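Lecture notes, unit on protein representations.

Consider one protein chain, 279 amino acids long.
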Amino acid sequence: MLSRLVARCAVISESRRFLALTFSAILANGLVIGLQPYDSFERAHGEILDTLNTVFLTFFVVELTIRITAYGGRPWRFFGSGWNVFDFVMVVPALLPGVRESTTALRVVRLLRVFRLVSALPEMRVLVQGLARSAAPLLSMGVLVLLLFYAYGMVGWILFSDHDPEHWSSLGQSMLTLFSVLTLEGWVEIQETALKYNEWSWVYFVSFILVSSFVLINMVIAVLINGVDEARARAAAERKAAERIDDQPLLDRLESLREGIDDIERQLEARADKIRADG
């Protein structure tokens, strides 16, 4: 009985209809959460929204139960996948007593369930995995950017603090100004103010924009693309490995059948030889 239940849960958890239903529930849950900030709608239909949230929570709990039950006597294997842990963390906190009594915490936990779209869409999972694989080189580049901001911030403070204290009064303010320059928003006005006191100020701004906005940002994009490509290649390799595992029972049966046919042929040849010898 238990083995039949486990097998049934395994079939359901791998069903395309079940996955589509889960995906639709996540989208509908996100829509309901998006309607709650509107006070007029909340006052008019608050009870309906709360009921729908309860229904969605119940569905997600049942869904997780089915997926965990599919592992049979080894349910801990469910947590061997990071995405399964992610789904579990997005759903279970809503069941905790302290969360259910707090309106703010409950809304935050409900909002987290929307992020299950990441685990529901394979391509989105690849993007997140690519971002995770790029974390180490991005951290190194972050240090490089910080050093760049520090050096240019000090130079900006030395050159412009006396003439434009609004933007260059301290190292922190200088770095904040450089961040605005990095976004290419309003930097022309800042440069024009500096040019009034030093006609060579354009060298400072142009060099910073070339290094930060073009070189570093393109390097960040290259790192992210490389991480996504690696994640996509790994996902493709995992899919091929899974297909080989699925095909293995069939291959074993074919190999056994081939060995049986070879054995029959050897027996027929031996009998034919015996008949010829007797004749």
